[in-house]
Amino acid sequence: MLDRVKVSPSVLAADFTQLHAELDRLSDADYIHFDVMDGHFVPNHSFGPHILMAVKRSTDALLDVHLMVTNPDEVIDWYVDAGADIVSVHLEAADDLPAIINRLHERGALAGVVINPPTPVQELEGVIDLVDIVLIMSVNPGFGGQSFIEGTYDKVRELRRMCERHGVDPLIEVDGGVTLSNARALGEAGATVLVAGSAVFKAEDPSMIVRELRELGTIGMQAREG
Ligand SMILES: O=C(CO)[C@@H](O)[C@H](O)COP(=O)(O)O
Ligand SMILES: [Co+2]
User: Fold this and answer.
1) Would strands 86-90 and 193-196 be described as parallel, antiparallel, or unpaired?
2) What is the CA(81)–ligand 1 centre distance, in A?
3) Exposed (0-12), middle (13-18) or buried (19+): which is 204, by Cβ within 10 Å?
4) Is 95 a catalytic residue?
5) Domain holding 129: CATH number?
6) Structural domain containing residue 160
7) CA proximity to 144, closest of 181, 196, 80, 189
8) How far apart (Å, rounded) are the C-alpha atoms in residues 58 and 140?
9) Which of 33, 49, 134, 206 lies at a 20 to 30 A Cα distance from 86?
């Protein structure tokens, strides 16, 4: 059981001309979220393992890699080699998710599964016992700065119920449109990791936003636990 919610700022929203300085002022972050987009699984490109190595040199936070690619089985090792601590792959993209999860565990990384907004939570039934993290997308993947999809709360609550039925307690991460206005409700629904790109990096004081997101999420989590 966690004592507080974790915050994972998405580096996609950072100013890349000053990547080191951007990460340096986020010493409070639990994780750094790294969005990999291949131009096939999502209609956008971002960055790959070389940039992840540069991020690793600029932060002590754990590296939380979100792979939006059609061939996760072929690339997971690149990201573990580059320093990923957590690697999450889309259920919609993986042919053999248990094999990917095994491989990540063999390599000493935490394994996550991601579902897109249209994918029902029930589709996680077969892998919920195997994963360390479930990431629920609260926007359609491919771009930062989108609006949060309200139906996410129900999906998080349903996932919590599934975890209880299975007697497992993976981290539950929510990604997309997370701000100070929905952090508390997300914690109350059952989220334990909040990804935030624009809300953190576009703020005047990113560290303060990280602390506030964590505090609000934790207040929600405590309310849920009673
Ligand atoms: O995976 C994605 C988008 O595909 C996210 O991680 C975004 O990068 C989050 O950005 P904001 O919605 O918080 O600006
Ligand atoms: Co992401």
Assistant:
1) unpaired
2) 24
3) exposed
4) no
5) 3.20.20.70
6) 6-225
7) 196
8) 29
9) 206
Which protein residues are within 6 Å of ligand 1, measured from CB? 10, 12-13, 33, 35, 66, 139, 141-146, 175-178, 195-199
Query: How many domains are contained in the chain?
Result: 1
Residue 163 belongs to some domain of the structure? yes
In a domain, 1, yes or no: no
**Which candidate, 130, 140, 135, places its Cα nearest to that of 159?**
135
Q: What is the pLDDT along the chain (226 residues), one digit of tens a residue?
A: 799 999 999 999 999 999 999 999 898 999 999 999 999 999 999 999 999 999 999 999 999 999 999 999 999 999 999 999 999 999 999 999 999 999 999 999 999 999 999 999 999 999 999 999 999 999 999 999 999 999 999 999 999 999 999 999 999 999 999 999 999 999 999 999 999 999 999 999 999 999 999 999 999 999 999 9
Token pair 């029930």: residue: 122
Do you know the residue count of the chain? 226
Q: Is residue 194 in a domain?
A: yes
Considering the candidates 35, 38, 64, 132, report the single residue annotated as catalytic: 35
Kindly tell me the burial class for residue 226, based on how many C-beta atoms sit within 10 Å of its own C-beta (0-12, 13-18, 19 or more).
exposed
Is 220 a domain residue? Answer: yes
64 is catalytic: no
